[in-house]
Amino acid sequence: MPKPSAGRPRRDAVHHPLFARFYARISVAGEGTIGPHRDELLSGLSGRVIEIGAGNGLNFAHYPRTVSEVVAIEPERTLRQLAVSAAMRSEVPVDVVPGVAEALPVKSEAFDAAVVSLVLCSVREVPRALAEVRRVLRPGGELRFFEHGRTWHGGRMAAVQRGLDRTVWPRLFGGCHVSRDPMAAISEAGFELASYQRLLVPEHGPRWPDSFCVLGTAHRPTGTD
Ligand SMILES: C[S@@+](CC[C@H](N)C(=O)[O-])C[C@H]1O[C@@H](n2cnc3c(N)ncnc32)[C@H](O)[C@@H]1O
Q1: What is the pLDDT of residues 30-85, one digit of tens each?
Q2: Domain spans of the chain?
């Protein structure tokens, strides 16, 4: 007997249609501020790259030509369709693939580099996602990250971020959290931090709960599984 749901399209693992339309607009409008950080994030990359949670594909235009191929994983349908359009305009070959960070649909040790930008805030299980990133990188491969997280000043903003994460923020912004600590998570996942910088985004003006960013590089250690 077929189940009652047979024949209906399956719901995506990540389903945030309203947020997707909102993000598609504000992310493009924010490129004047975020674009230079994307350049820095991707500068000097080469070989095969996997990008996790590629959204509407705004990173694609920033990859250097030394990158031979990008596999861009995006679970949300609306954003994935926009990423496919961005891939067609990209100067480096980009293959947009459905999937989630916690179960990457690719072989182990198949990539020279992995990219996470503004995505560890939204994945359901950060340790599992980073374990997957580690699995698919070759030993010595690079993880490039540009993530927002908890304030490094503590105090009132830290309390506000925790409160928002428990209440409205994830519901309003597609599962995003503002009080996570991406660098601690990357270290705990067994990556070696190479270099990083803390950034306020935007650099001037009011501080928002998602203004506290880190941009950097870590490596999968060589000689480990
Ligand atoms: C704020 S957007 C960032 C998009 C893009 N990386 C960028 O830099 O503009 C967060 C992205 O994470 C994706 N995402 C959410 N949960 C995910 C998961 N479990 N695995 C992979 N991507 C996920 C969302 O669909 C969305 O595209």
Answers
A1: 999 999 999 999 999 999 999 999 999 999 999 999 999 999 999 999 999 999 99
A2: 17-219
pLDDT in tens, 110-125: 999 999 999 999 999 9
Query: Is residue 2 pLDDT above 50, yes or no?
Result: no
Domain made up of 17-219: CATH architecture: 3-Layer(aba) Sandwich (3.40)
Sign of CA dihedral 197, 31, 127, 168: positive
- What is the pTM assigned to this prediction? 0.94
In the structure, which protein residues have their CB atom closer than 6 angstroms to any atom of ligand 1? 14, 23, 27, 52-55, 58-59, 73-76, 79, 100-102, 117-119, 122-124, 175
Instruction: Please tell me the residue having the least CA distance from ligand 1 atom 10.
Output: 119
Determine the residue of 39, 119, 123 to mutate for testing ligand 1's pocket, defined as the one with the most ligand atoms within 8 A of the Cβ atom.
119
Q: Where are the alpha helices (DSSP H) in the chain?
A: 17-29, 31-42, 77-89, 126-136, 155-166, 169-172, 182-188
Q: What's the CA-to-centroid distance between 3 and ligand 1, angstroms?
A: 31
pLDDT digits (tens, 9 = 90+) for 8-28: 445 678 888 899 999 999 999
Give 196-202 contacts, CB < 8 A, sequence gap 24+: 196/145, 198/152, 199/37, 201/33, 201/34, 201/37, 201/148, 202/33
